[in-house]
Structures are given as C-alpha cells and as structure tokens.
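REVIEWER CHECKLIST
Item 1: Sequence provided? yes
Item 2: Single chain? yes
Item 3: Sequence as submitted:
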Amino acid sequence: MPRKSVENNSYELLCAILCMFKDITCILELKDILTLECLNNSKIICKDIQKYITNLNSAINRNPKKVSEYIINFRKDINKIIFDKMIFDIDKLYLEGKTITSPEILDLNKNIDRKESKADIYIKLNNNNFIGISVKQMKNATLTNYSVQKMLPLEDNIRLTKIKRDFLTNKGFPNNIKTNRKRVNKLFYVSDPTILKDHIYWCELMKCIDINKTIIKQQLVENMLSKNLPYKLLEFNGDDLYSIEYNSDILNDINFEHYEPYYYCASGSNRNTAKLFYKLDILKKSYRVEVRWKGDIHTCSPQFCTHPI
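Item 4: Structure as written out by the authors:
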C-alpha cells in the first residue's frame, strides 16, 4: 500500500480555520465557511488552499466523528493558553504545511535548523510577533525523524555506511532493487535483543550511539523542544494543545538508554521488526525512541523516531 501523502494535510487547514473563525464549534458551522471564496477573503495565506479544502472535505465525509472531536478538543484547550484573546489581534495566518514557501516565514526561520522549525501554521499578530503551531493528527504521532548516522561524527557515518554496504553485498544484495525490499528488510529484523551483538551493522551502530550518547540526547531534546526559535511554538495532537518550551535546566535531567522491554509486545511476544529501541526521559516525561529505516536501506540511514508514551 503506498504511503499516504503528508502534503496539504486536512487537519492543518482545520486548525487554521479554528484560529481565524472563533465561532466555529461543529462540522455544520465548519462547512459553511469551507469554500474557496470564503477562505480567500479571510486572513489565511496559503499557496494550495483548494487542495487543503478538498482534503478536509474528504476527511469530514470519511470520519466526521474524528473531525468533530478534533474541533471540540482544540476549542477546549484554546482557552487554557488564553489564545482567544489573541484571535482579535491577528494580522494574518500563514498555512505553510511541511514546506515553507512564504517569503516572510522563510525570513522568520532563517538560520534555524529545519528540525526545530516544525510549525505548520504561523500566526502573525498586529504587534509583529509570531506564534507557530505544529499540527499532529493523533496523540501518538511521531515527534522526530532525525537521521541517526548524521548525528554521529563524520568518520563513524562513513564507516557505518561501508559496513552496511558490505553486509548487504555479502548477503547477496549489492544493489538496491525494489522487488528485493522485503528480503533486505528482514536482514535487519531483531527476533530477540540478545542477537544484536551478532549483527555487524546493528552492533556497531549501537556502540557509536553509546559513545556519543551525551551529544545525541542533547540534540534530540534541543531539536524536539525547538531551543532556538524566535517565536512561541504550540503543538496540537488532536487531544491537547500545549506550549513547547525549552529551558537549559532540562539538560540536567535527561536519560537516554537502550531499552529491551520495548522489543516485546504486551503479550510478551517479540515484535520481530527491523528496529532498535531506546527510552528517552526528560524531566518527568518518557518517550519511546525507535531507530528504524524510512526508505530504502541501501541508500539511507536509520532514523530516530520519537513517540510519546
């Protein structure tokens, strides 16, 4: 099954509309303004607004209950952060999605690492301050997708790439051929965490992560909590709207460890998947960090994919 496109996400437009039209509390009210003419006359700036409208209409028809719950939950939490007061002070709202194209927002994020500038919506207030909102469809959505090997020293990155290439060649897969993808993936399955010491790539990768653990956990946290942004960042996960805030004290209370319990399902059976599992603790919050492949193993690095617990 092809991977669903993340472009023009319907829930990004929904959140933008709920910010700009504070009286919308249900799907019927939403449908009344979900037209190209109405949204073009609003303060919402969006390159592909019609595609967003089409996708949001599709989401409403496909799962009206989920859309209704999304609206209710967003409205509930808007008051907690006194966001209603800001509605009357909005100059304009930029709906950018995953790819920033508006010159003003590109300038706002200049010199900021893309891993930190994770907002999908940018609200410009009349005082010229900005608020960013990162939109997630659900509570367990992935919080990070960071290349593991790129976080390591360059010499380790080069060495690990060679180890992987030699391993695949020795197993009979020297080249990336799409029809071999499932067989290649199985070469990296972990049927039991005790076998990791015998897997040349996983074993070496784990050693590199352990040696560089201090800088890795710092980068994970600083990027996940957007340390260097010049604007306030909020995140909505379908249930809760909350502020993402970084402070230097966090670095004194981070733990990042390889975590064998995550290799097992609640039933006790092994997940038997091509992943490593780590646990990240930040203050009183814990996260499951999966080291997994996204894309063709021949040509990519595994990624740190962080999930709330």
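Item 5: Key structural point noted by reviewer: The mean pLDDT is 92.
Item 6: Recommendation: ____
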